[in-house]
Automatic annotation (TrEMBL):
Proposed core component of the chromatin remodeling Ino80 complex which is involved in transcriptional regulation, DNA replication and probably DNA repair. It comes from the Eukaryota. It is an enzyme of class 3 (hydrolase). Keywords: ATP-binding, Chromatin regulator, DNA damage, DNA repair, Helicase, Hydrolase, Nucleotide-binding, Nucleus, Transcription, Transcription regulation. It is found in: Nucleus. GO terms for biological process: chromatin organization; DNA repair. GO terms for cellular component: nucleus. GO terms for molecular function: ATP binding; ATP hydrolysis activity; DNA helicase activity. This is RuvB-like helicase. It catalyses: ATP + H2O = ADP + phosphate + H(+).
Length: 248
């Protein structure tokens, strides 16, 4: 006769990620030129010219892998731009670079030890790149059609037309895929990839054929070539996840 005992599962608390839209949401980099000289007003940055230049030198060392595993301490009076410079460095390193901002009041208000809260924040700030070969659909968006139920109740359905330089295909869309396209703000003229295994959509940029469109004239617009060959192909992709996500 076997006895079965109930094991109590320990609850794992996690710090809440707070998306801030505030004083630093406009920063896109450190505002330096190619010789690391700071521009007076650039990429949302203004002032602190010497500090920004020093941060630029550190940034180049990071890119070269010369200070891997080390920390940088920015010290100064409140309101002097420490967080802005830190965010500018993260933005300059690329969108895949994790950036975690915490206030002291958040740590003291959490229902966990301060050591655990800081450990989680650090692990969420460490990015890990994972390479894998997967089957994807890659092409330029020709048209997106979405049909909503006349009664307003029920799932949305639609069609997505994609093309390469050699072919064009229409795909049927379900409610989940339509929501993903809307979330990524995909529109005609965008070049996208769709991971067949996960359905994840990656917006690569605008096609060069749309370079003269009135809606593609922003300074941050990235133009790419229309893909060649088959729409469906096997490709090595790189996912960036945080160290914290890997251990969940």
């Amino acid at each position: 006769m076997a006895a079965v005992g109930a094991a109590k599962v320990q609850e794992v608390r996690e710090i809440t990620r707070i998306e801030r839209i505030g004083a630093h949401s406009h920063i896109r980099g450190l505002g330096l030129d190619d010789s690391l000289e700071p521009r007076h007003v650039s990429q949302g940055m203004v002032g602190q010219l010497m500090a920004r230049r020093a941060a630029g030198v550190v940034l180049e060392m990071i890119k070269d892998g010369k200070i891997a595993g080390r920390a940088i301490l920015l010290a100064g009076q409140p309101g002097t731009g420490k967080t802005a410079i830190a965010m500018g460095m993260a933005q300059a390193l690329g969108m895949d670079t994790p950036f975690t901002s915490m206030a002291g009041s958040e740590i003291y208000s959490l229902e966990m030890s301060k050591t655990e809260a800081l450990t989680q924040a650090i692990r969420k700030s460490i990015g890990v790149r994972i390479k894998e070969e997967t089957e994807i659909i890659e092409g330029e968006v020709v048209e997106i059609q979405v049909d909503r139920p006349a009664t307003g109740v029920g799932a949305k359905v639609g069609k997505l037309t994609l093309k390469t330089t050699e072919m064009e295909t229409i795909y049927d869309l379900g409610n989940k895929m339509i929501d993903s396209l809307m979330k990524e703000k995909v529109q005609a003229g965008d070049v996208i990839t769709i991971d067949k295994a996960t359905g994840k959509i990656n917006r690569l940029g605008r096609s060069f054929t749309r370079a003269r469109d009135y809606d593609a004239t922003g300074s941050q617009t990235r133009f790419v070539q229309c893909p060649e060959g088959e729409l469906q192909k096997r490709k090595e992709v790189v996912h960036t996840v945080t160290l914290h996500e890997l251990t969940l």
